[in-house]
Amino acid sequence: MNFYLSALDDLIRLPHENYSIGIILCKSKKQKTVEYAFRDMSKPMGVALYKTAAALPPEYKNVLPDVEQLKELL
Length: 74
Known about the structure:
Blueprint: H1 2-11, H2 31-38, H3 67-73
């Protein structure tokens, strides 16, 4: 919800309007879930981009188990 409220305030809210608020309506609530969802909203967060490769780099070939070994372990 924080994402949508931030976008709404940045892109749609007019200068003379107050900041948006979010309201979630639920049939029931679990107190711990609510506490965890809203706790520490001021904590710093990071965003990262990662890419996967189709092939394992040569330097890792002898370090990691191959597909067949992983299948046996599972």
